[in-house]
Amino acid sequence: MVLNPKFEDFIGQGMVSFSYDDGAMNNYDLGIPLHEEYNLPATFNIITSIVDGTLEQGAKAFALDYFGMPITRAQIIEMSNLGYEIAAHTHTHPIQHRQGRFLSDYTAEEVLYEYTTANGLLRKWGIPRIEGFAVPGSKWTPTIADLAKPHYRYVRSLGNRSVIPYPPTDPYNLPSFFVGGTTSVKVIKAKIDEAISQKKWLIIMMHGLTKQTGNVQEYLYSTERLEQIFQYIASKPEEQLLAVNQQDALRFITNLGDFVVDKISLSLSGKTLKATGFDEYNNPVPTTRGFNPKWSVVNGDVTLTTNSDGSASVLGKGTIRVKDANNRKIYSKRNVNVVS
Ligand SMILES: [Zn+2]
Q1: What is the pTM of this model?
Q2: What is the predicted pLDDT for the residue at 68?
Q3: Which stretches make up the NodB homology domain (predicted)?
């Protein structure tokens, strides 16, 4: 379980995020144990058609050629339950290698298909809080960004090595530092130093991982080098450098604070009351992610009190709906206080 920082931990210091593209199984096999060991949050940007097996053979062969086996649905769900962010990376991953067309060459209709199929599938698989989208091939355009706005909270854009100011110039254009198979630890450490000294946000973007040491092929990175980077980050005090996933980092630098459950639905089944929180995109927030309210009724007023388990904070107003086993509404109240 990775312990994601809270808003109160952010004091304007430098931030670093790890962002893995495509969804290689080695992200799970080799990356997760290292992230767990150093308690470093991460974001995994998944090509959904590789996971559900619908990506056409040619493209699949290309993908497998560089990163081995694709990650499974069960592994994605496990990573999400461990506290890692899951984000979208289109459904079919339009890139020049395949069809001569990047996402930027697609019609609006085709782009929307990619957006809604990707986040729709991830939600269907039970992943909460799908807020991010990483553009394949770093081919960002203003049109792609505009089309993403109703579906995502942010877009990770170019691997152009920029660090991001607070607040970001545009949440739908968040650049990153592309780490390829030959990128040295020294160069990455220097970039981390830049984030610390300038008090900016560095997103380190990678693809697959390998146990091979030294320089490796472009879309892999050596875990030996990655661990050296993790050790470097661990050597920095948290007041200087905060390791955080992308969705939380964006909340912090846009002053949104900790994640808030906007809407609460209570369902009554027999004598068991089940509470589910929903985020702004109507994603259900499961109890394992820090939403675990108790409730009490005093003079007709319902108050929910959350158990604070340290993994998330729930604070604000919600709508409470109590239904019976036959899905009939037996109680409904707006603006219920939720206190952490
Ligand atoms: Zn990609």
Answers
A1: 0.81
A2: 81
A3: 14-233
Q: How far apart (Å, rounded) are the C-alpha atoms in residues 318 and 278?
A: 9
* Per-residue pLDDT tens over the stretch 299-314: 545 555 554 432 223 3
3.40.50.720, 3.90.550.10, 3.20.20.60, 3.20.20.370: which CATH number matches 9-253? 3.20.20.370
Q: Find the 306 Cα to ligand 1 centroid distance in Å.
A: 39
If you measure from the C-alpha of residue 147 to the centroid of ligand 1, how many angstroms do you get, rounded to a whole number? 19
> How many whole angstroms from 223 Cα to the centroid of ligand 1?
19
Residue 137 CB neighbours (<10 A): 15
Alpha carbon separation from 43 to 68, 102, 126, 269 (Å, rounded)? 20, 23, 16, 36
Rounded to the nearest angstrom, the distance between the alpha carbon of 134 and the centre of ligand 1 is 8
CA of 95 to the centre of ligand 1 (A): 8
Structure-token match 């993994």, residue found: 311
Number of helices and strands (H, E) in the chain?
11, 17
Assess contact for 221 and 209: CB atoms under 8 A: yes
